[in-house]
Amino acid sequence: MIKAENLTKMFGDFTAVSKINLFIPRGQIFGFLGPNGAGKTTTIRMLTGSLKPTSGKIEILGLDMRKNELEIKRRIGVVPDEPKIYDHLKGFEYLEFIMDIYRVNNDEVKKRIKELSNAFGVDYLDKQVSDMSHGMKQKLMLISVLMRKPEVIFLDEPTVGLDARSARILKELLKKYANQGITIFLTTHILEIAEKMCDVIAIIDRGEIIAQGDIETLKKGKDKSLEDLFLELTAQEENIKNAVDIL
Q1: Domain extent for 212
Q2: Which CDD domains match (predicted)?
Q3: Is 119 part of a structural domain of the chain?
Q4: Residue 75 lies in a domain
Q5: Residue 204: closest CA among 196, 212, 214
């Protein structure tokens, strides 16, 4: 469902992502972890067609991104780390706009909007987007993507701004979708979420994937949490100790 070969992105002389390879099958929840500035968001932007790679090949749903960009975008869903929604629209107007863009303005999708709104506690679709908090916008963005049930869903830090109840519902919903054959690609700084949810995890640091596999494979039999493993692999454990000693 998601395939990347030697995917590279350079900004001038700076290499943001360097020759990464991904192969993510149908129905898998794939966690993409890394420190700030490691290349996570750049990778998602390339995989979803909003940023052109410097080199390498991307296939989504078996389609070449270079030849089938619009078809791919029609069939995937993207929840960015910052919800970008037109401020002058009301919540329901934004959802109607998205339904019209994707040509899914039908009773089935409208029913799903009601179900998702009830689940996430969204009772403010008459409110203007400019008057919504970050968390309210995040829920609206989630509904605008999940209402379509795309075949592949990319989520960049999806629980940021969500209350505990909504975050739990989202996690359970993503597991349900994966069981139905939908592929989930998510980034998160909350390692507990990754450890409990993801079938496979890749850790990126300085633009390169430094570890990849299921939790047990990554731990290699060691009695360590994912947090300990992550800090060890990204060489941050010693920095933390030094910082605490200084304080």
Answers
A1: 2-83+150-246
A2: ABC_DR_subfamily_A
A3: no
A4: yes
A5: 212
